[in-house]
User: What shape does this take?
Amino acid sequence: MSERAPESLAERAAALDAADELGKLRERFVLDDVVYLDGNSLGALPVDVPGRVEDVVRRQWGELRIRSWEESGWWTAPERIGDRIAPLVGAAPGQIVVGDSTSVNVFKALVGAVRLAAEGRDEILVDATTFPTDGYIAASAARLTGCQLRPVEPSEVPSALTSRTAAVLLNHVDYRTGRQYDLPGLTAAIHAAGALAVWDLCHSAGALPVGLDEHGVDLAVGCTYKYLNGGPGSPAYLYVRAGLQDRFDSPLPGWNSHAEPFGMSPAYEPAPGARRGRVGTPDILSMLALEAALEVWDGVSVEAVRAKSLALTDFFLECVAAYVPEGRVEPVTPSAHAERGSQVALRCADAGPVMKRLVARGVVGDFRHPDILRFGFTPLYVGFAETERAARILAEELAEAEEPSREPS
Assistant: This one.
């Protein structure tokens, strides 16, 4: 009897898809035959969102008009939707408020953290590899508060902390490489030095467990248009740990965060709880689109999502190693699971042109300057067969790019 031939990667992908308990969630999204590996920039559209937005526009706004602030729950949406996000980042209710952009919330969180710090602390540490906006905001916050700003590599934070450090702003997952940093360990080191920890969760929320409450994070921010699928420009969120809320002093004390917003008092008195993180009138259309989008998480555990994320990225790296000629690309995303987010970044000298050709062939990732091909894996709707197909097409395009040009005979 002849031995069975080794199972191909395509056959393995089919078997993995057949056993995937999260595979049925794909039907909750508007998708086509494109292999969409850019959900770490913009998540796919959940099928229920268009109908919900139409109701908000036609009925709540068109018919109820001003009454919808109360009757349709518009006024309480920032806290209500914050409580829907809370279990996805390991937070108890009452600590997250939704609204404004990520940049605005980084500013609120970082200035608020400095104001919460002990007297004499006049230094802010910021992730030296951070997304540029976080660095810009940190520099502005330092000027505003009279602090010195020190960029440091996340791994160097424990040794860089001093008795002058007021707050540390870090990214949970690096947007270029997909490296996940040690949130529990770094938060503990920051607290041991007497400083406050501020985390940017843009590339981790909805992709892996965060554990804000469990690990004692002080403040955190995140966007909702990536793994949370809230849509382009959907509002961000601000987390303020319950034990700090009565002392949190927002640098943007808008009327929406006043204890009596309709009292129109010239003197500011902050609202209790998460509400004091609000500023101005909420963006209701985007806010309620986000609320509808978050319903795809009903019955889904973040732990199951993380397990599939690691399986997908492991499989993609295996397929790349099998299909792509050695040395043509270099994985820069860590192989260790504890250090990996939900994306794979490959260094490639001609990454920009390669990604354009991939998109033309129905494999959508993105390019990060100067030489990074970035592929994001959203476990709610990405499967293993798609993953194998993406690696195979990548190999074909890389091979074609290396073929010498033929001179006419």
